[in-house]
Write a structure and sequence with these properties.
6 helices; about 190 residues; elongated; 8 strands
Length: about 190
Amino acid sequence: YQKTLAEKKNQKIEYPHVIAGRTVWFRAKFINLQQPGTVSIMVRNITKRKNAELALKKREQELELAVKGGDLGTWNWYIETGEISFNEGCANMLGYSAEEIHPHISALEKLIHPEDKGYVIEGFDAHLNGKTEFFEAEYRLKHKEGLDWVWVLHRSKIVEQNPDGRPLRMSGTFLDISGRKKAEYA
């Protein structure tokens, strides 16, 4: 028994306990196990934190289902560094995995059709400079196989700014509208 307690020294354990029909979460930490035969346990009620974690997990799952259900690709651009990340849906839309796309805004710029690049960059700049509430455009991106262009409806918005109002992060979605565009041309 004492060996088991000694192994738990400085270990944190979270466990639920039902009190009056409600689940209450506790975190226990075993301390002061230097002297044989003595055990000290510090216990803290972490129910509020656990409930917040569970609510956040539920919201994340709901958002993920909405993104998948809407066939949306999502991305985040950290403006100051140029770092950009794409979810699998966004990358797959273009024939890639998320790891295959270089995580820099220049990678996205290289995929934009030359005829569309001017108005796309102009729209981005207008939003970054506070002239528009959000960015929205329909344009073509190069598919990995190189032969096809994927028409996307791109919507994005600045979601984080520094205290001076300078944009720090932009998030957005891509929706593949190639089928609709083919129907329009037909």
